[in-house]
Amino acid sequence: MSYVKNATNTLKKVLLCPPTYFEFEPINVITEEWLRQGESVNKEACLREHADFVQAYRENDVEVVLMEPTPGLTYEVFARDFGGCVAEGYIMGKFREPCRVGETEKYEAKMKELGIAPIARCTSGAFEGGDFWLLDEYTIVHGIIARTDQDGYINIKRQMQTLGYTMIGIPCNRENLHLDMCFNIVADKVAVVCKAALPDFFLKMLEKRHFTLIDVPQEGVFRHYCNLQALGAGRVISFTDNKNVNEKMQTLGLNVIRVDLVEILKGGGGPHCMTFPLLRV
Ligand SMILES: NC(=[NH2+])NCCC[C@H](N)C(=O)O
């Protein structure tokens, strides 16, 4: 059985969590800014947006497994962040922010129920799935930004090495939060990136691997312009307001699926953060 081999094969199954108990937490620059402006959560809109998101997956032949949301877990909707799935099983991360720590046991129980085994577990520091990317079938790049620290990174790197994976740490400025906010593989050898936020050596790595890059300005990171979800076979889940990037992806021949996401994005996460891939064949 192989679960998730890479970032771009056909996505078959995902784990999502409805934003039933969604609240703003001042733990990222995006939400902090909305709170400063006096914004509050529009729960009804969030639930509607999430239902549309679920439907977009189903319409594209992706099976959706839904979490039973837990009261008090305000950011459980960002399913991506508890860990990462690879071919052999999944990596259990370790949340940095106290308001997210409780998600670990809920997601772990769900993975057990799904019969997917943990093949690595972060036991020191912090390690979040929003930083995790399979660059190819045996190379992992992982952001060391606001939520994964050096300890957590080294801890998982050692464990993944024994399974034959090479892991490369990508340091970025803290405001970028997670690597998927400034780097996102949307199709085979195509990525939406914020070059200004990424270290030169990583941009060189992408160049050597012949990636086509769609670049967004630093401001775009905070509007989730990079935060998209590849479905494979040239299809990408994006959102309506991401006009410029959507057009550029279309010019490259990609099929862009637009979901009306506005309110959930204010929590500091987008389509990629909301999706934990379970099966990509
Ligand atoms: N994979 C991601 N970029 N996730 C974004 C998580 C946003 C969430 N509100 C947090 O600050 O924890």
From TrEMBL:
Pfam families linked to this entry: DDAH_eukar
Its EC number(s): 3.5.3.6
GO biological process: L-arginine deiminase pathway
InterPro entries hit by this protein: Arg_deiminase (IPR003876)
Reaction(s) catalysed by this chain's protein: L-arginine + H2O = L-citrulline + NH4(+)
Entry keyword set: Arginine metabolism, Hydrolase
SUPFAM superfamilies linked: Pentein (SSF55909)
Pathway the protein contributes to: Amino-acid degradation; L-arginine degradation via ADI pathway; carbamoyl phosphate from L-arginine: step 1/2
Top EC class, one word: hydrolase
Recorded GO MF terms: arginine deiminase activity
Family per similarity comment: Belongs to the arginine deiminase family.
Protein name: arginine deiminase
Record organism: Propionispira arboris
